[in-house]
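notes to self, project folder thing:

trying the whole complex as one job this time. last attempt i did each chain seperately and stitching them together was a nightmare. two parts in total, labels are on each line so i dont mix them up again. if this works i'll redo the older ones the same way
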Amino acid sequence: MSSTLDAGGSANTHPSTWKRPPVLVKNNTLRYALIIGAIVYLVLAIGSLEVNWARVYEGLDRGWQFVKGFLQPDFTSRWKDIKIGMIESLTMALTSTVAGVLISIPIGIGAARNLVPPFVYRICRSIIAISRSLQEIIIAILFVAMFGFGPFAGFLTLSFATIGFLSKLLAEDIEVVDKSQLEAVRATGASWWQLVNYAVQPQVAPRLIGLSLYRLDINFRESAVIGIVGAGGIGATLNTAIDRYEYDSAGAILLIIISVVMLAEYLSGYARKWVQ
Amino acid sequence: MNITENSGVSHLRWQHRTGVQRLALWVGWLLLVAFTVYCWQVMTESTIWAFVADAPRQAADLGSRMVPPKWSYINVLWVPLWHTLNIATLGTMIGVAIAIPVAFLAARNTTPSRFFVRPIALFIIVASRSINSLIWALLLVSIIGPGVLAGVVAIGIRSIGFVAKLLYEAIEETDTAQIEAVTATGASRSQVVNYGILPQIMPSIYGISVFRWDINIRESTILGLVGAGGIGRQLQASLNVLAWPQVTLIFIVILATVVVSEWISAKVRHAII
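result (full assembly):
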């Protein structure tokens, strides 16, 4: 009876187990080749690690001290340095975000294909590509060499990095705005400026504000890093604390950074909800 | 004829906001500007403007020292480059391996306890995300010593937060009908995860991992600045002796690596999704 239903095989050889079909690579040979390649790579990579286990063992004690420092942070003994570093970081983050946003708005508009002629588009896109492909820390090294140590070099670095980030996202946002609104405003005989002001700006402004707040958060986090190469901010303080093996002060600085970032994330989420 | 009528209504211009709203907006912007100016004052208090004014000359000087790049130095860079690749790849693997359980603990629909375990998982994610890998490397170099291992662990720790955050959002967005169907067969909790949830988030896991790998390549090129191995260490050595032609070559190599990794990651993600 059942053999008529079961076209392929005989009645008593139903498969009793089910094997999940391969998800990614359907071709068997290719899949095994990839797996073997990955294993060979892993062996080579792990072999090249050159771990000095004696040093690692020695370091475990210091790692434990760091964990203790993180759990019992010492805010008081280096409070003066921490305060200066935090003020530098926060002011740097805010001023560089404002400067970066002001510069990114024209570049972002210029990099939107639906608003500008092709040659402007290409110029603006290459500015964005340059700004995005260089890491903050590399730019910071160059700016510190040019402008001297301190938060001013950090300000320039973060502004430069903000331009690439914000203009790209802004341009992509402008490129997907609702076309009917553009057409409607254009149909009234509006000039290019009026088009940008009345058709594009209302559509992208909420997201631009949200992105700016997000970038403020990123800039603060980055300001903790570029201090390592001399561009001011809390990073310099942190670097000193770790160099002196003062893990309790380092733990305090890290906790401050984490809580500022959490606070910023919470506030920017709230602000974005309010804007939209 | 109509002119008087027109001029009569012309003051009734359409406006987007009411008077109070406009005033509030204006005051808000004013406060932002004032606060920014104040911050600027505080920040530049200790800036020596003579150095800033001198910057164009410094830039020209630096530029003249940096070109032409010292091409023969490339032979020294192959091994550090291989280490950089390993730091990024192994770090990503460690990060993803730890991030998957953390993501399951953090997702609202799979967490074992919403009031106890979930906050801990979320704190792990935030802590890992808010501290840059360079700072993790700085810490780890002082704890486990300079070398590639510190870089791998730093990249791994940094990746946990990023991967886990994106992944737990993907888990929360899974289709409940499939999970219910698997649950209805009498499957255990782990079977529900394995057959109901995992197949749905598998593409996200691959996509996020490749995306993070790309970012990690970018970050691992500079980890050497604080002693964690890779090409950044050569950069640090060259900077210390002010060997600018070598620095230029390293910048070029880093840029090329980043571009290639971005291209690979885009190709792979395109193939998966």
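what i see at first glance: The CA atoms of residues 32 and 194 of chain B lie 51 Å apart.
need to look closer tmrw
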